[in-house]
Write a structure and sequence with these properties.
single chain, about 1250 residues, alpha+beta, 4-stranded antiparallel sheet, 18 helices, globular
Length: about 1250
């Protein structure tokens, strides 16, 4: 017999074990009704299954609505779980369609009763992946349920047998349209269960919404980014091939300690060759196991099972896939990955005999004949003809690491659309039964195991004193005379399905064994000489020490109460600063919660402590509360989709909300919204209890900004980071957001104002409730596919054309629809701040209204009277692309001595050729003779023109990770306001204002100007619908050349030839092609495009390229913004901002007479290396900066000159009006 194990057991634990000898303390085994003894000894061998029918209370068939999407046909599922806590495993089934979900309660006598409505679980929705776990530590099982095709997802709390929907307050905010499978695990070992999700076919984003960390109270926060999973899941790891389409293809998450170090690691079975394994670093983060990448070769990973199939003490991984041919590509079937004990896998598929599984889905390891070896069962099925009649597979373990398929032989004959699966002992007869979930009329197929042999078993249930009451993640080690059997307790997933939270161990011939438990917190307990053929309930012994988990820092471990632990926060990410420490439940004591390195005194409970970080200004910086919330807002914009119109509105309304708070404490100023009715929203006046209460004012500013940011960005792809930042700042500022606000408090005032702005935002015609979508606009042109040559499908060379990319990533780094729609085509109708009805023109186009403020002269059209101007303007963009080579030897002075001080703009398009330098680039800037602050001349800064053009294009670009153009000017304003020579005098006069007053006024004025700029510019964009350079240049070149009717490729509407820049390909030209197929085509001497960028970022440089392959100086996954060009938004925003800052400061010049924005050598550019030397962007005045911003869009290939000047002119008008309007509220003279 096995050696005697001596583990200390508490009295209650031993008592429970002894009760378990009768089949389990609170769950007696049932064999025959009225017989509470153990099953009788078997009389002979039998191993087969019986399909149960309606006589046991399970449906034979059910209504089925054929899904209309792949996701709908893929998901669904079931959970095998003891819902009512009576010791018998029940079955919860997702119905989908119009039928409510079903809960089949196990009656303990071999029958079931449908009882979903009795428990509040009769949900009707397109759901998937039901997973039960005790999220709040109260001893019962709560439920997470995913949704498909945008259907709701649910978190249901079990309140004494009634499930209550707590989704809205849970912290779970999923933007992913599909959540198929889920798994719970205490990955950070803080005593509570965290949630892992799969979101197959969801576009990748900064936050993949994969990991949701339990805060310790049953609510969750996304930790996908912080844990490192988000980036690594999509392959953003050096030396690892990333997902080419940057789409989350995950199907099945499993948490298992594959390296035997005591914490759960992460395994994801994923489609399209993206299955991945991650090691738990023990500090709240995961690292991709790079060495496993070449081993994980399943092409279409779907379902998965984890278990020790070879009984060597570590967890192996079985992944279902497709065997056959898919889309004309080979699909080589399932995979079995054998673990070496350190988390390194070996592919043993071939030798084990598990490859051919048809079209596999849900899977489980289960010792179906109790011989001590884990068998594999998995479902099958898909809609393609060759996969519609495949049986489920039962891969019976031969005991030597190989398997034999025996499903039909053992009478498991389901040939339907199998998805989920459960393997468990429903009738407590000592063997495991099988339940299959089908996406068909035969939704549920239940096979009872009729096993009769001389083998023995043991069923183990675990109970813990921690919030992880079921001890998910524990290991049970059963020692026999022949060796050890290691089983691990997990909570999901088999793929859209879940096994019960208990462990079944087949013992073979052994009837007495030793049992040891390795609990999730590292403690062990056990029992010797345990009789087989029973259910044990093991209770974790009481702890004398407690777990301290440090998030974003070091110092975690197990300690005794009163221990003083050294803790150190991780180094802050770029743009962030450590602010303070917090602990779950505010327990324990920090020696200095504001120090990144301090000590923590351990309380009498396990606890998670978190290092918090705030963006922008550091905690010790002397900045206002408004500035701190503006930094959070700017970071929120960077974590959202790149939407300049939406974010101009967010900047304005958040700034205005803070201004309204401030104005209520000011004796002169009046609010913009409070006390007024706008768009039928009546925002009742609310007077502060004490206008001299500085703390209440700061609290109200904070709460108003916090609430509005949380609301406006709730659907952002990076919302978890946005919520983290806003919560961190609120905590740092000491803002208590728990419970109800006290009447007359600063918090109550802030909440009232936030409520007003939230209501107003739903009525200002931005269509916020529908995600700001257009309601009628449709593009005239079919999409351009820039990865293909030319522009063969364009219809109208004067109208905007969508782009279709193999992977489209917006300016903020988010994967978006491959053919992004026109952003803000109808934005002109949004309620403005200061735009006047006198400046409004309403156009009717096809019965739809376009609202256009400051209507400009229409742009030149390709086929109109100004067609020559059209061709000149777009040709200039191609020529300026030739300026982007830092090695061309052209050096220019970019100091204010040579740049800026433009007095006027050309009045007509015909005059533009006198303003823009076609061949050398730039504009007729005379520069400034002297610096008005120093009285001396500006020092020259001589740099390569190719560096300046590229740096300028990148500095003013929309991304990646950009705050978009309106936010960019807030960054500039913050930089200006912190300049040591800045005097915060209103309009340059009077006494200096304090920081809060100055920042509030700056943001209010600037926000109003940015909002109106968006309305004016996008109203024009929507109506005129003007083409972008990438579309126009390729289309013109496809037509031919318009300069010489005697030369090849002549077309009177084609592109003009320009010597040395735009020419024809001749025979012998390197571009002619092997068969001279390109002779006569147009070629450009320009930036060569993204294909020429070296692997180490070596610049693409400039050279001759076929015009049909021309690219703007942008990332290939972006190419050009998804909206029309005319007029330039950058030009409009920038000139408006320049007017506001000039008027506010009373000085057109930057503090010190010059700006200074650094671009370090080889570090500043994003998609190619550069600049080749250190560069400082220097502008004397705000208007100079705005003018150079406008030029950056031409060098970047985004705008022709005809988009630029009208935007500058409109921006000047908008900025001036917005400033004047803001002043009327500040000085109390505003009439409305």
């Amino acid at each position: 017999m096995a050696s005697q194990l001596r583990y200390a057991l508490t009295a209650v634990g031993l008592c429970t074990l002894l009760l378990g000898c009768g089949g389990g303390g609170d769950a007696p085994p049932v064999t025959d009704p009225g017989d509470n003894s153990n099953p009788p000894a078997p009389a002979g061998d039998r191993f087969s299954f019986t399909l149960l029918d309606s006589s046991v209370g399970l449906p034979v068939s059910n209504p089925f609505t054929e899904p209309t999407t792949t996701q709908g046909y893929t998901g669904g599922g079931l959970a095998a779980v003891d819902v009512d806590g009576d010791g018998f495993v029940d079955i919860y089934v997702v119905a989908k369609g119009d039928e409510p979900n079903q809960l089949f309660l196990n009656n303990g006598d071999g029958t079931f009763t449908e009882s979903a409505a009795d428990f509040g679980l009769d949900l009707t929705h397109n759901g998937s992946g039901p997973t039960f776990a005790d999220i709040d530590g109260d001893g019962d099982r709560d439920l997470f349920l995913g949704g498909l095709d945008g259907a709701p997802y649910y978190l249901m709390r079990n309140d004494a047998g009634t499930f209550v929907d707590i989704t809205a307050s849970s912290g779970l905010i999923l933007t992913a349209a599909n959540t198929l499978s889920a798994a719970f695990s205490d990955y950070d070992l803080d005593g509570d269960l965290d949630l892992f999700l799969s979101h197959w076919s969801t576009d990748g984003a900064i936050d993949t919404e994969t990991l949701w960390r339990n805060r310790g109270d049953g609510t969750f926060e996304s930790y996908s980014v912080e844990s490192g999973i988000a980036a690594q899941l999509l392959g953003d790891v050096p030396g690892v091939q990333s997902n080419q389409d940057l789409i989350d293809h995950t199907f099945t998450p499993n948490l298992s300690d594959i390296d035997n170090d005591g914490d759960p690691d992460l395994l994801y079975a994923s489609d399209f060759g993206t299955s991945r394994s991650f090691l738990n670093n023990g500090d709240g983060t995961f690292s991709l196991i790079v060495s496993n990448e070449p081993v994980l070769t399943d092409e279409f990973g779907m379902g998965a099972a984890v278990g020790d199939y070879d009984n060597d003490g570590d967890m192996d991984w079985f992944v279902t896939s497709i065997f056959g041919t898919v889309n004309n590509a080979p699909a080589t079937g399932n995979r079995l990955y054998r673990n070496d004990g350190l988390g390194n896998f070996e592919d043993v598929t071939e030798v084990s005999g598990v490859r051919d599984g048809h079209w596999g889905w849900g899977a489980c390891f289960a010792d179906l004949d109790n011989d001590g070896h884990l068998d594999i069962f998995h479902t099958n099925g898909w809609t393609l003809d060759e996969y519609t009649n495949d049986p489920a597979l039962l891969l019976h373990a031969n005991g030597d690491g190989t398997f034999t398929e025996r499903a039909i032989e053992l009478r498991v004959d389901d040939r339907d659309q199998g998805r989920g699966v459960g393997c468990f002992d429903f009738d407590r007869d000592g063997d495991q039964d099988l339940v299959i979930y089908n996406n068909s009329e035969n939704r549920l197929r239940f096979y009872r195991n009729n096993l009769v042999n001389d083998n023995h078993y043991l069923t183990v249930r675990l109970r813990s004193e921690t919030m992880n009451t079921l001890a998910i993640g524990a290991r049970v080690v059963v020692t026999t005379d022949d060796g050890t059997l290691v089983r691990e307790l997990r909570s999901g997933s088999n793929f859209v399905s879940q096994n019960p939270s208990e462990i079944h161990v087949g013992l073979g011939a052994e009837d007495v064994v030793d049992v040891a438990v390795q609990w999730p917190d590292g403690r062990t307990s056990g029992l010797s000489q345990v009789q087989a053929d029973q259910m044990l309930t093991l209770v974790q012994p009481s702890a004398s020490d407690f777990r301290v988990t440090v998030m974003s820092g070091t110092g975690d471990g197990s300690y005794e109460t009163g221990d003083v632990v050294d803790i150190t926060a991780d180094t802050a990410s770029d743009g962030y600063h450590f602010s303070h420490w917090t602990s779950t439940g505010a327990v324990g004591v920090f020696a200095d919660p504001l120090s990144s390195s301090t000590t923590f005194t351990v309380p009498d409970t396990s606890v998670t402590i978190t290092a918090n970080y705030i963006p922008g200004a550091g905690p010790a910086a002397d900045v206002s509360v408004a500035r701190r919330w503006n930094e959070v807002l700017l970071q929120a914009i960077r974590n959202d989709f790149a939407r300049p119109t939406v974010h101009a509105r967010n900047l304005f309304q958040t700034s205005s909300a803070m201004y309204d708070v401030w104005s209520l404490f000011d004796p002169v100023s009046v609010p913009w919204l409070v006390g007024r009715t706008r768009n039928d929203v009546d925002c009742v006046d609310m007077t502060p209890a004490d206008v001299d209460d500085v703390a209440a004012r700061a609290e109200a500013v904070s709460v108003a900004a916090y609430r509005l940011i949380q609301h406006r960005f709730s659907a952002a792809p990076g919302f978890s980071a946005i919520r983290r930042d806003s919560n961190a700042l609120a905590g740092f500022l000491g803002i208590d957001l728990t419970g109800m606000a006290q009447a007359d408090s600063g918090r109550a005032l802030g909440e009232h104002i936030a409520d007003c702005y939230i209501a107003y935002g739903l009525t200002d015609n931005a269509n916020e409730s529908q995600g700001y979508a257009n309601t009628f606009y449709e593009p005239v042109n079919p999409p351009l596919q820039p990865e293909e040559p030319g522009n063969p499908d364009i219809v109208d060379l004067s109208r905007w054309q969508p782009l279709t990319l193999s992977t489209a990533i917006d300016q903020a780094g988010n994967v978006v629809d491959d053919t992004p729609s026109f952003l803000g085509a109808e934005w002109g109708i949004v309620t403005p701040f200061a735009l006047s009805p006198a400046d409004l023109t309403i156009y009717n186009a096809g019965g739809d209204e376009f609202w256009v403020y400051h209507d400009p002269v229409p742009p030149p059209l390709a086929d109109g009277s100004e067609a020559d101007l059209y061709r000149w303007a777009f040709s200039l963009v191609a020529v300026w692309g030739a300026h982007l080579d830092p090695a061309d030897g052209v050096m220019i002075d970019i100091s204010p001595a040579s740049v800026g001080n433009i007095a006027s703009y050309p009045a007509t398009y015909a005059d533009y050729d006198q303003f823009y330098d076609l061949f050398d680039g730039g504009d007729p800037s005379p520069g400034h003779v002297t610096n008005p602050v120093t009285g001396g001349p500006y020092s020259p800064q001589i740099v390569p023109r190719g560096d300046y053009g590229r740096v300028l294009a990148e500095f003013w670009a929309d991304g990646p990770e950009s705050e978009t153009p309106p936010g960019h000017w807030f960054v500039i304003a913050n930089t200006v306001n912190e300049h040591p020579l800045m005097e915060r005098r209103f309009e340059g006069m009077g006494a200096p204002l304090d920081r809060l007053d100055w920042d509030i006024l700056t943001y209010f004025m600037l926000g109003g100007a940015m909002h109106d700029s968006a309305i004016a510019a996008w109203g024009i964009k929507g109506y005129y619908d003007y083409i972008r350079p990438v579309s126009a240049l390729r289309a013109l070149a496809d037509l031919g050349q318009s300069s010489d009717d005697t030369a090849a490729s002549y077309h009177e509407e084609g592109i003009p030839l320009i010597d040395d820049y735009i020419e024809l390909v001749a025979e012998g030209d390197p571009l002619a092609g092997e068969d001279n197929e390109h002779v006569g085509k147009i070629k450009f001497y320009s930036w060569r495009g993204p294909d020429y960028i070296g692997e180490d970022g070596e610049p693409a440089g400039v050279g001759w390229i076929l015009a049909e392959h021309w690219w703007p100086y942008q990332r290939p996954s972006f190419v050009t913004p998804p909206f029309a060009g005319f007029v330039s938004g950058h030009s409009t925003y920038s000139r408006a901002a320049a007017e506001v800052l000039t008027a506010l400061t009373g000085d057109p010049f930057f503090p010190g007479g010059m700006s200074g924005f650094e671009a370090p050598q080889d570090e500043f550019l994003v998609f190619e290396r550069g600049p080749s030397m250190d560069i400082t962007l220097q502008w004397a005045t705000y208007r100079d900066a705005a003018d150079q911003c406008s030029l950056s869009r031409i060098w970047g290939g985004i705008h022709p000159p005809v988009d630029d000047i009208p935007g500058r002119v409109i921006g000047e008008q908008v900025g001036t009006a917005a400033y004047a309007r803001a002043v009327s509220y500040i000085d109390g003279t505003a009439a409305d």
